Amino acid sequence: IYLETQTGLIVSSIQTLLTSLRSSSDSRDISDASDEITKIVDEVIRTTRLTLTSLCSTSGRGEMVLEDLENSLDLLNEMREQLETEPELAHSSSAEAKMVKQKLASASFDIAKYTKELVSLIDE
């Protein structure tokens, strides 16, 4: 139930992020949404690692999913940091701005995918 609840929070935060990206919101709005995703996902990773150690049958696959989740979170944070250092990208339609926004969206979708995969593993 914990992971399912957290997945709902992650999905909601991702929707906020995607809305901010689509509407060319202020870079602060994008950063805030990214920060919220990071906070929730960091907690999910910590809690799941503790749980996986007691579930030997899924710990190998679970650890791989957690690593994928961490990598996606790292990419999300890297793009957020770029938007913070170059806030004009939030309103720009340049190729660089599109690339940053696309990577942010892609990382957020991957986060949702890997979180749902964790739920499936734990429910097995």
Give an overview in words.
It holds the Pfam family GIT1_C. This is ARF GTPase-activating protein GIT1 C-terminal domain-containing protein. GO terms for molecular function: MAP-kinase scaffold activity. The chain contains four helices and no strands. The protein has a single domain, classed as Alpha-catenin/vinculin-like (Four Helix Bundle (Hemerythrin (Met), subunit A)), CATH 1.20.120. With 124 residues, the protein is mainly α.
Q: What's the architecture, going by CATH?
A: Up-down Bundle
Rg over C-alpha atoms, rounded to the nearest angstrom: 15 Å
Mean pLDDT: 88
Distance between the termini: 13 Å
Shape: elongated
Q: What are the low-pLDDT stretches, counting only 5+ consecutive residues below 50?
A: none
| Count of structural domains | 1
CATH level-1 class: Mainly Alpha
Structural class: mainly alpha
Helix content: over 70%
Helix run count: 4
What CATH calls the topology is: Four Helix Bundle (Hemerythrin (Met), subunit A)
Order of helices and strands: HHHH
Strand content: under 5%
Number of strands: 0
The named CATH superfamily: Alpha-catenin/vinculin-like
The main β sheet shows up as: none
